[in-house]
Amino acid sequence: MFRIRKIIASITLMLIILTGCSSEASLTNEEKVTGVVNNYLEALESKDISAMVKYTDDLRFPDKEEQKKQYKNIEEEITDTKIVEVKQVSEIEFKATVEIVSDGKLNELTFPIQKQEEDWKIIVGQDF
Q1: Using CA atoms, how far apart are residues 48 and 69, in angstroms rounded to an integer?
Q2: Structural domain boundaries of the chain?
Q3: Mean pLDDT in the chain?
Q4: Is 39 exposed, middle or buried (0-12, 13-18, 19+ CB in 10 A)?
Q5: Is the pTM of this model over 0.85?
Q6: Which of 41, 65, 109, 115 is least crowded, fewest Cβ atoms below 10 Å from its Cβ?
Q7: Which range is the signal sequence, renumbered to this chain (predicted)?
């Protein structure tokens, strides 16, 4: 009887581990994009330059080192951020509308997010 319980416990543990491992692979594109936007907003609030560069494709700076250098000069105080909406535009493009409190002022911005190779990138620096 003890041996059967041990086998059942082992199988249950194995199923839990396998389910946890496969959940990352089964994320929808919308969930992946929402995660990228959340990570970017957290980076804005904490002024994490490396993460800001990682999650964006800034059209103003084709060179990532130049992008980092320019981002270090940002003086805005971003105190709060929130995703308003993430909407799919096509198979490889989404639009995210976010609210950002910068220097005490609430701004609502919409960013395109595009799939580039295997990663989703927030496109910034474009003219509207």
Answers
A1: 13
A2: 29-124
A3: 86
A4: middle
A5: no
A6: 65
A7: 1-25
Terminal-residue alpha carbon distance, the chain: 70
Question: Which pair of structure tokens corresponds to residue 117?
Answer: 């190779």
The stretch 46-71 carries a mean pLDDT of 93
Q: How confident is the model at residue 51 (pLDDT cuts 50, 70, 90)?
A: very high
Return d(Cα 19, Cα 105) in angstroms, integer: 43
- Identify the CA nearest to 82 among candidates 47, 123, 48, 40: 40
User: Is residue 47 left, alpha or beta, with left meaning phi > 0 and alpha meaning psi from -120 to 50?
Assistant: left
Which token pair is 92?
Answer: 């490889």
The domain 29-124 having CATH identifier 3.40.50.970: the answer here is no
| Residue 93: band (very low, low, confident or very high) from pLDDT cuts 50, 70, 90 | very high
Integer angstrom CA distances of residue 15 from 11, 19, 56: 6, 6, 36
Q: What is the DSSP letter of 110?
A: E
